[in-house]
Write a structure and sequence with these properties.
Blueprint: E1 3-6, H1 10-22, E2 28-31, H2 34-44, E3 48-52, H3 60-68, E4 75-80, H4 86-91, E5 96-99, H5 104-116, E6 128-131, E7 137-140, E8 143-144, H6 150-161, E9 167-168, H7 169-176, H8 182-202, E10 209-212, E11 215-218, E12 224-225, H9 226-231, H10 250-259
Parallel strand pairs: 1-2, 1-3, 3-4, 4-5, 6-12
Antiparallel strand pairs: 6-7, 7-8, 9-11, 10-11
């Protein structure tokens, strides 16, 4: 799990870092300044941030608010010597609240609470981002994924396009392989799905595609997507093109242009 500690007191963050390392966490970065921590998280990502509340300049509450606006926000745990901040911590959807001084058992319970948090990807998995504007691509921990097969790439684009709905083989064949006769199309579909899963498995992100009983879907909780964010109201993402390589996306493109 990628962890960031933000505390302007050197002794305090060193103590927390030691406890976390004793509990088996190794990917830890510490910052005495909230602005520097925010820049690091925007650049490199983060699964969990331990935030001191009272700091010079940007405080922990302000930093938590800024982090919550990121496309893939980290979980937050507040660390402070002031119990009166507890209610405010829950207001910004913190996973936990550590009151200084704390021991190893208390930090362990905070990590366990983070792990049980609903709607979060399991700690340690790569960050995955799908982009649909203007063309399709998948980024894993900030690097574009090379599919090695254009139809495997198109199949994933189609599944992202369907927004997590279970989609049957016949629907996929009609959209992607309509130029083939039925048996050939079904065999080809199975080959392409196998290639897609192998590619995702090689990148450590096979969890984002699920299949069962002749149908397949993406798990929208396993990745972020500019198209999904746009549908939820985020501005400045759509500039007139959507999955422009694929004719089956044209009806949706027309609808998006009407909205904008």
């Amino acid at each position: 799990m990628k962890i960031v500690i933000v505390d302007d007191e050197r002794r305090a963050w060193q103590m927390l870092e030691k406890v976390l390392r004793d509990l088996g966490e190794t990917d830890i970065a510490a910052f005495p300044c909230a602005e520097d921590a925010l820049a690091h998280i925007r650049r490199s990502g983060c699964d969990l941030a331990f935030l001191d509340i009272e700091m010079p300049g940007m405080g922990g509450m302000e930093l938590a608010t800024a982090l919550s606006a990121l496309p893939d926000p980290p979980m937050t745990v507040f660390v402070t010597a002031y119990p009166e901040y507890a209610l405010r911590a829950w207001d910004v959807d913190a996973a936990d609240y550590l009151l200084k001084p704390f021991g190893t058992d208390r930090v362990r319970r905070a990590l366990e609470r983070v792990a049980r948090r609903p709607g979060r990807k399991p700690p340690g998995l790569p960050r995955v981002e799908a982009r649909c504007f203007p063309t399709f691509g998948l980024w894993v921990d900030g690097a574009p994924l090379d599919f090695g097969n254009r139809k495997a790439r198109e199949l994933l684009a189609y599944l992202v396009h369907t927004q997590g709905e279970w989609t049957g083989m016949d629907s996929i064949i009609f959209a992607l392989f309509e130029d083939r006769e039925e048996k050939s199309a079904k065999d080809y579909y199975r080959q392409v799905l196998h290639r897609l899963k192998a590619t995702l498995r090689g990148a450590g992100v096979e969890h984002m595609v699920q299949s069962a009983y002749g149908k397949v879907r993406v798990d929208p909780s396993a990745f972020t997507c500019d198209y999904y964010r746009y549908l939820k109201g985020e501005k400045g993402l759509f500039f007139g093109e959507y999955l422009s390589d694929y004719s089956w996306a044209e009806p949706t493109l027309a609808d998006l242009r009407q909205r904008s």
